[in-house]
Amino acid sequence: MATAIENRDPHALATLETLAPGHATVLGITGPPGAGKSTLVSALATALRREEKTVAILAVDPTSRLSGGAILGDRIRMQHHHADHGIFIRSVATRGASGGLSRAIASLVRLMDAAGRDYVLIETVGVGQDEIDVASLAQITIVVLVPGMGDDVQAIKAGIMEVADIFVINKSDLPGADRLQQEIHAERPDVPIVKTVALNAEGVDELFQQIEARREAPLHPPSPISHPPFPIAIDHLGIAVKSLDDAVAFYQRLGLDENHRETVAQEKVEVAMLPAGDSRIELLEPTAPESPIAKFLEKRGPGLHHVALRVPNLTAAVGRLRASGARLLHEPRLGAGGHLYVFVHPASTGGVLLELIQESSH
Fold it and tell me: CATH class for domain 2-216?
């Protein structure tokens, strides 16, 4: 059935819809090429089996130009698990999809969950810094890095660095592991860092403990009675466009006039603001190919990029979200118009990138 689902067979997909959900914990393992993700996944699967957990490994491999299927590199590297019926391994072809996953992966995760697996491990293809789609499927996202990356932590912080629930420094016996740990901590001080040498299974037990701690933490604990929910209002809608001038011309025909335009250097974006009642529309045009808006346009095309809400106390709002296990993409910082803001990952908001803005500075 897995093959039929990967081939998007209508009958298999219809059958999948009828299956009852299971209880699987979904782990996403991502990171740049050469980080040792496959070796770590294999060692983690061994540790899970020692705990008598059943495991499904969905390893996304490059697509064969001849067959259209996966090249099977990951399944070959994990062949020592072949006699263990508690581990299911499947290599899944990217088939041209970007973001480090294949288009069928969500359906395969659902199948493995319905089949009763305790853990589903998704290993991304390892194509680069923008392979962050796994965070939308995984309950826990593990970003694997290795020493000797130099300034690469700075270069990739707008991509996979932002989706990590746990960082793993693999090959930590190499020089530079301590420096890499300091760099990661400087960027994401709220995220645990585990050092491993996956080839020898060193540090894997600690990684399992961190996974269990994240898995068992309540996602949405009730707010204390003494702190009622904060009032909110829509501040703006952020819309990614290829041309500010063309988009502004359209909205002007609706009667909305641009009242401000500026470039936000740290986001590599030019912003045009159009008031609409008590809120506004923000049109976003990238100023560089590595801009998050440029990547959004490349992957999804023009459209709604985020929804922004005003809150009276951003610090309190951020504290509540962190206590609830929500995934924040960065620390609060200054944005267009001089307001203080923070972004919340779509995995925590029901699928929409959410921006929270300090009301007093609006």
Answer: alpha beta
